[in-house]
Amino acid sequence: MSQRHLLCAISMVLALATTGCDPSGDAGAPAPDSDRVRVALVMKSLANEFFIDMAAGAEAHQAANADSYELLVNGIKNESDLAQQVALVEQMMASQVDVIVIAPADSKSLLPVVARAVNQGITVVNIDNRFDRDLLRGMGLTIPFVGPDNKAGARAVGTYLAQHLQAGDQVAIIGGIPSAFNAQQRLEGFQAAMTAAGMEIVSVQSADWEQAKAAAIAAAILSEHPQLTAILAANDSMALGAVAAVRQAGKQGQVKVVGFDNISAANDLVQSGAMLATADQHGRDLAVFGIEYALSALATGAAPADKKTPVDLIIKGEQ
Amino acid sequence: MKIFTHNVQLPWNSLGLIGVLVLLVILFSIMSEYFFSAVTFRTLVNQIPALTVIAVGMTFVLLVAGIDLSVGSVMALAAAVMGVLIADHQWSFAAALLACLVVGLTCGVCNGYISAHWRIPSFVVTLGMLEIARGGAYLATDSQTKYLGASVAALGDPVPFLGVSTALLIAVAVVVVAQIVLSRTVFGRYMIAIGTNEEAVRLSGINPVTWKVLVFACAGLLAGLGGAFQLGYLQSADPNAGIGLELSAIAAVVIGGTSLSGGRGSVVNSFLGVLIIAVMQTGLAQLGVSEPAKRIITGLVIIAAVLFDQYRDNLGALFKAIRV
User: Fold this and answer.
1) Fold identical between A35-147+283-310 and A150-280?
2) Domain for residue B187, yes or no?
3) At what angle do helices B93-117 and B208-234 cross, to 10 degrees?
4) Which one of B241, B286, B296 has the shortest CB-CB distance to A17?
5) Residue A34 to residue A32: CA distance in whole angstroms
6) What is the number of structural domains in chain B?
């Protein structure tokens, strides 16, 4: 008898926690009707403000278009947890969604499971980080990529930085996860801008998109290269880490830091002058672009094609 | 030497956990109309083989009052070595699998020997191994995910008609064998004895060092096997795989009622712990619960399950304790 009481207690805790902690409150509340399209947004780390923004943008869009589709948002614990993201795609397949909009944690390793989703008849749209093109072709898949031109964005940031440096100055680049396509693109963009302006790139290292790692790497680079004049970080989390390292080394003003993504903390730093520039790829709208693309593709049955979204340079005085 | 002893495991010990599991399934089925389906359950169980075998190893380690923090890293290292051997050195799948298991076993033997022989807490030794193996995994793969493709899918792909993967079948077999070892062999008895009172074991003329090395060797070998499962599941070797996996494994084992101070535990219950965690993950993902809420709920369920297990023989006392 008392056993049943405890089961009730646990179920109440769980039910309370579910409803109490989920501000969207859609945990089973509206009876899903079959004529609405079911869209799953599979994100990277929901501990990263960039993706939180993206999810918030998508949720706001869904709220405004509630009668045309329902939305399930899921992310992984940390950026590199491939297994969890593969599992998420499988869980979304099991939930029989119509559309999966995915920001893959790796350009290749997510493809086998995504291929299965496509074969099951799910419309898959790739956002943020592009799937490996050669492998896509090899698997006979066409998955549209809706996203920014990371290379051009990084080149714009780098070119702006170069205007504040002198030819021959030493610079260092902190890259994202090396196997990720957007990391490669941003690295290429940075390198192209720096080489074109005649800068000397003394170090290129990866900090896996993470702030703490970037701080440690930047600190090491700063002590290794006392003449360093700039650090180019492939995302703003890492740029924040670099800024912390620069401050600890007492080199504010001597070493300029640029980033990418325009998260709010980085924007504050750009406005205060602690960072020189970042790039805004309209992360908040990125998932929305993907969802709108998928919905229109579903409605019109048009052949999948890539779609470029805007990237803007953010400097002091611009939000 | 007598190998088998009497069964000390009573089946109703698992009833509380099965209750929690059924309850979770019912709750999620009510909240999501897509949860209660064969596809969901097939998907769910095909995701757990690596965690399952690692939790089995962790159960043994906790039984002798040790801990193994290195399992996630060792898994990543073993998978990384296997992936590199296949992708860059054209090794056959079977040969690379063997190498993968040897890597895991070697790490486990090192953990066991260093901690048991020099009497250093296994927490410290395996913390060191956590770093060493992770570094090794980055070194082996050049910090890049090695994509291998369908050539390694044999373990991860579903078996025809059953719908579950070969890896899962192997993992379930490991659970069964490990439970028999624990409850019916001398090795199992010694594990419980060492975890209960190591000094008494020593005084009765049995050398606990040998048995502890064997326990950590099992944990390492199973972490290697988990690496092979993970590699088959992802069709790639990911040097970042299994970060924090040791905590999931410890959580599963503790949910299963294994004591952190040694001497009490059950492999089958650890498996039920793995299932509870997997059901939570899948259910919360299908509901699209926000990430912070997911983690809070998972934490609450871990504590609730252990509380329930603690008082399963005397639920009246639990209510008295709550009221006070």
Assistant:
1) yes
2) yes
3) 150
4) B296
5) 7
6) 1
* Cβ B111 vs Cβ B126: under 8 Å: yes
Dihedral pair phi/psi, residue A273, rounded to 5°: 95, -5
Residues of A in contact with B318 (CB under 8 A): 2, 6
Residue ranges per structural domain of chain A: 35-147+283-310, 150-280
Write the pLDDT tens digit of every residue in A227-257.
999 999 999 989 999 998 998 888 988 999 9
Nearest-Cα distance to chain A for B115, in Å, is 30
For residue A66, give how far its alpha carbon lies from the nearest alpha carbon of chain B (Å): 16
Q: How far apart are CA B83 and CA B178, in angstroms?
A: 28
Which 10-49 residues of chain A touch chain B by CB within 8 A? 10-11, 13-15, 17-18, 21-24, 26-28, 32, 46-47
β-sheet bridge partners, residue A71: A39
Q: What Cα–Cα distance (Å) separates residue A215 from each residue in A44, A158, A242, A313? A: 22, 20, 5, 24
* Beta-carbon contacts of residue A140 (< 8 Å; ≥ 6 apart): none
Residues of chain B in contact with residue A56, where contact means CB-CB under 8 angstroms, are: none
* Cα–Cα distance measured from residue B286 to residue B280, given in angstroms and rounded to the nearest whole number: 10
Residue of A nearest to B32 (CA): A28
Q: Domain of B291: which CATH number?
A: 1.10.3470
Three-class DSSP category at B246: helix
Whether the pLDDT of residue A19 is over 60: the answer is: no
Residues A297-309 pLDDT 10s: 888 887 778 888 8
Q: Are residues B308 and A10, on separate chains, in Cβ contact within 8 Å?
A: yes
State whether ipTM is beyond 0.90.
Answer: no
Query: What pLDDT is attached to residue A25?
Result: 37
Interface test with A, best of B142, B240, B309, B320 (most A CBs within 10 A): B240
Nearest CA in chain A to B227: A83
CB of A120 within 8 Å of a chain B CB? The answer is no
Range of the domain at B64: 18-25+37-312
Per-residue confidence at B273, pLDDT binned at 50, 70, 90? very high
Q: Which of A23, A26, A80 faces B243 most closely, judged by CB atoms? A: A80
What's phi and psi for A224, nearest 5 deg? Answer: -75, -35
According to CATH, the topology of domain A35-147+283-310 is Rossmann fold (3.40.50)
Fold of A150-280: Rossmann fold (3.40.50)
Best of A4, A21, A113, A119 to substitute, by most chain B Cβ atoms within 10 angstroms, is: A21
